Amino acid sequence: MAVLVKATPDDLTIYDTTLRDGTQGEGISFSVNSKLRIVEKLDHFGIDYIEAGWPGSSPRDLAFFREAAGLRLGHARLTAFGSTRRSGIPAAEDAQLATLLEAGTPVVTIFGKTWLLHVEQVIRTTREENLAMIGDSVRFLAAADREVLYDAEHFFDGYRDNPEYALATLRAAAENGASHLVLCDTNGGTQVHEMEEIVGVVRERFPRLRLGVHAHNDCGLGVAVSLAAVRAGAVQVQGTMNGYGERNGNANLTSILPNLVLKQGYALACGEHLAKLRDLSLYIDDMANQRPDLRAPFVGASSFAHKGGVHADAANKVARSYEHIDPAEVGNRTRVLVSDMSGRTSIMMKAREMGLEVEARSEGMRGLLETLKELEYRGYEYESADASFKLLLERVLHGRESRIVLHSYRTTIVEESLDGRELYTEATVKIAADGHPMYTVADARGPVGALDHALRKALLPIFPNLEQVRLVDFKVRIIDSNEGTDARIRVQVETSDGQRSWGTVGVSDNIIEASWEALRDAYEFRLLLEEGAEGAEKAARRITATA
Q1: Judging by beta carbons within 10 Å of its beta carbon (0-12, 13-18, 19+), is residue 13 exposed, middle or buried?
Q2: 213 plus 276 within the same structural domain
Q3: What is the mean pLDDT of the chain?
Q4: Which site among 233, 348, 405, 542 is 20 to 30 Å from 106 CA-CA?
């Protein structure tokens, strides 16, 4: 029995499969608790369907669905995923279908075979039995009062191979109660024009059924073909946050959603929450223990970053001259990158971004430009080292003196062989911290660790608030590779105090010296933050006292 629903653009829904298909991506995994929290986050954001796992695939997913029974979702429909019944077994006796029902979700999505290659050579059954497997499974689940979405696996490959059989598989699902026919580009090889053409054909054959699209990104077209499918009549888009998924990933919802809402005018349920999109993207990355993609469209840190002086100058005057949307619409912001390509406007904008007022034509600005170009010629880069750049601004423009003054340091590699060969590094550091002379010794497995331990040991008695500061990332790049092992080294360090993170940079032909510069700046910047907080607090006390 066909579901008599006339599909219109107003019916467009978003189906998130981050917690199922996304976890098939390399290095992507979520605990049960993380999945529960992500479901709540996606629900609050306005996602319509959340596919949360395959109950029959792992004990973790079974545990999740047991816990998920206690969730109180305000908008989203939680969905369990599985396959059609096995060949030769009645749907009522198929253990996997029974597990789908036991998951207790209001929606069930099942996939079936569309491509004869899979029917005859992978699951090794007949064409007729495959159609029966699809129809029986959909009918069984629909009779149990579930909304059933049918995922036509490898639909576009199957259609190119045998169009009539591919359409027959859809008919088997449609006639037995499927609410949506989802066309899956499982191998990710479909081109944009093919997607629009084939979805158009299916739209004509099934004018009263809701069509969906499930695309992968193997050709880098996951977003593009998803948007093309909507143009051709699909009213459901499936994808994952941040494009997680097998091989090259799934269609990326963090790109699809703003395109649909901001560029094409669709009134999605999540449209009113789009300003939280970047926060959601970062939250998902955090839950998956992944580093955010700086160049991700809309939500990446580089999405609205300007480096060229001409670009920055134009964007400062008229933001839309080099920004296709207002970054705030997706929760992002304009950033200015400084380099030897930077002009006065770039540096002025960057300084303002950091809370400093700088006159573009001042003598200090002229000196800063010269200093910056010289440093970048030597190999310094400040695009990922905002903290070092802020310290540079303070030194050159305001004459700020360092609170951490180095007198000397030394690192020594020590080999012990009492109970077996063991290497470690010992570091000694002699500094003045706010004028207090400190001399410390510490060790660690490597020279950078030993240097950091010795520096912390010297700083904490004077600056106890630095206790929470920790190195979270460390990168080393060779600058002039023609010099081989004598090349200059650029070290970039990312540091966090548990609430904020910042980047610093050091350059030298000695990796220990470059590391020292980056580490020193990391601590120096944290002290600068404290100075700002103390100044604001003192100002607030003065205002209160005056009142």
Answers
A1: middle
A2: yes
A3: 85
A4: 233
End-to-end CA distance of the chain: 76
Q: What is the pLDDT of residues 245-291, one digit of tens each?
A: 999 999 999 999 999 999 999 999 999 999 999 999 988 988 888 88
Say if 298 falls within a structural domain.
no
Give the list of residues 6+ apart from residue 25 with CB closer than 8 angstroms, or none.
244, 245, 246, 249
- Give the span between the Cα atoms of 469 and 496, in whole angstroms: 6
φ/ψ (deg, to 5) at 247: 55, -110
Maximal C-alpha separation, the chain: 88
Considering the domain architecture, whether residues 273 and 331 belong to the same structural domain is answered as: no
The helix (run of H) or strand (run of E) holding residue 285 is helix 277-287
What is 237-271 written as a DSSP string?
A: EEEBGGG--STT-B-BHHHHHHIIIIIT----GGG
Question: Based on the domain organization, do 432 and 515 belong to the same domain?
Answer: yes
Sheet with 422-433, strands from edge to edge, namely 404-416, 422-433, 436-444
DSSP string, 332-389: ---EE--STT--HHHHHHHHHHTT----TTSHHHHHHHHHHHHHHHTT---TT-HHHH
What gap in Å lies between CA 240 and CA 254, rounded to an integer? 8
Distance CA 182, CA 177 (A): 14
Pairwise CA distance, residues 166 & 84, whole Å? 16
| d(C-alpha 181, C-alpha 173), whole Å | 8
Q: Where are the beta strands (DSSP E) in 68-162?
A: 77-83, 107-113, 147-153
More confident residue, 70 or 199: 199
Q: Return the minimum-mean-pLDDT range out of 24-33, 217-226, 331-340, 402-411.
A: 331-340
Within a domain: 395: no
For residue 312 the two structure tokens come to: 């920055």
How many structural domains comprise the chain?
A: 3
- Domain containing 87 equals 9-287
Q: Is 48 within 8 Å of 10 (Cβ atoms)?
A: no
For residues 238 and 15, the answer to whether their CB atoms sit within 8 Å is yes
Helix boundaries (H) for 381-510: 386-398, 447-459
Name the strand (E) or helix (H) holding 174: helix 163-174
Coil vs helix vs strand at 64:
helix
Residue type for position 470: R
Q: Where are the alpha helices (DSSP H) in 419-510?
A: 447-459
Helix, strand, coil fractions of the chain, as percent rounded to 5? 45, 20, 35
For residue 346, give the nearest of 336, 359, 334, 358 by alpha carbon: 336
